[in-house]
């Protein structure tokens, strides 16, 4: 299984394309620039099977409907943010952009840690709240990587000064759910470069001394 990082939009939010040998793929956090993303998928000859969302902030959802409508595929999100997709006040677009970004309701709500099956893909859903109440991470155990959204970054962590953010909860999520993964697990964050669990355990200044 392969992963590809495609930064999109004004905040360069990382969209991840997870593909297999059969050219099927998952699209995780299509944040913006729907036409660019679709053209990229077409150029690669990929067939999307589902859209997965780590959370529903505006910079992660801007191209959700573009991809869903183009490929007629389902969208997955945690149930705690089921109303955020269509609510610019909740997803932050009104406050940060001065314009409304919204998407239709998700097709499937995730309400617990589980194995998510979409097409021929499966991954473990980890609940990692703190940056937002419904933040989740997707762990592809056999391939050795986790898509962490805005929970854990290379040398940093997600901000918690947004509505319903909780710093203590985020630190607990990272320690209990992410740092318990194998140290060689590649971390694919919502912004910036990839890292590993081991590297963040050793040098992330926000996690030392917890």
UniProtKB/TrEMBL annotation:
Database matches in Gene3D superfamilies: Ribonuclease Z/Hydroxyacylglutathione hydrolase-like (3.60.15.10)
InterPro entries the UniProt entry points to: MBL_Glyoxalase_II, Metallo-B-lactamas, RibonucZ/Hydroxyglut_hydro
Keywords, sorted A to Z: Hydrolase, Metal-binding, Zinc
SMART domains documented for this protein: Lactamase_B
Annotated GO MF terms: hydrolase activity; metal ion binding
Domain Metallo-beta-lactamase as annotated: residue spans: 12-191
Cofactors demanded by this protein: Zn(2+)
The protein's name in its UniProt record: Metallo-beta-lactamase domain-containing protein
Organism of origin: Metabacillus indicus (Bacillus indicus)
């Amino acid at each position: 299984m392969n992963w590809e990082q495609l930064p999109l939009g004004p905040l360069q939010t990382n969209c991840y394309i997870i593909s297999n040998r059969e050219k099927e793929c998952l699209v995780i956090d299509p944040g913006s620039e729907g036409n660019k993303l679709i053209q990229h998928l077409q150029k690669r000859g990929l067939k999307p099977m589902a859209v997965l969302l780590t959370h529903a902030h505006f910079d992660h959802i801007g191209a959700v409907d573009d991809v869903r409508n183009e490929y007629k595929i389902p969208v997955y999100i945690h149930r705690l943010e089921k109303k955020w997709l269509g609510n610019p006040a909740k997803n932050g677009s009104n406050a940060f952009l001065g314009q409304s970004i919204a998407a239709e309701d998700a097709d499937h709500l995730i309400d617990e840690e589980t194995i998510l099956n979409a097409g021929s893909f499966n991954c473990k859903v980890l609940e990692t709240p703190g940056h937002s109440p419904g933040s989740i991470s997707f762990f592809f155990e056999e391939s050795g990587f986790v898509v962490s959204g805005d929970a854990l970054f290379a040398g940093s962590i997600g901000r918690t000064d947004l509505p319903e953010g909780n710093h203590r909860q985020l630190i607990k999520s990272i320690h209990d759910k992410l740092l318990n993964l194998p140290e060689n697990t590649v971390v694919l964050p919502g912004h910036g470069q990839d890292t590993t669990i081991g590297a963040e355990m050793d040098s992330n200044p926000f996690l030392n001394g917890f």
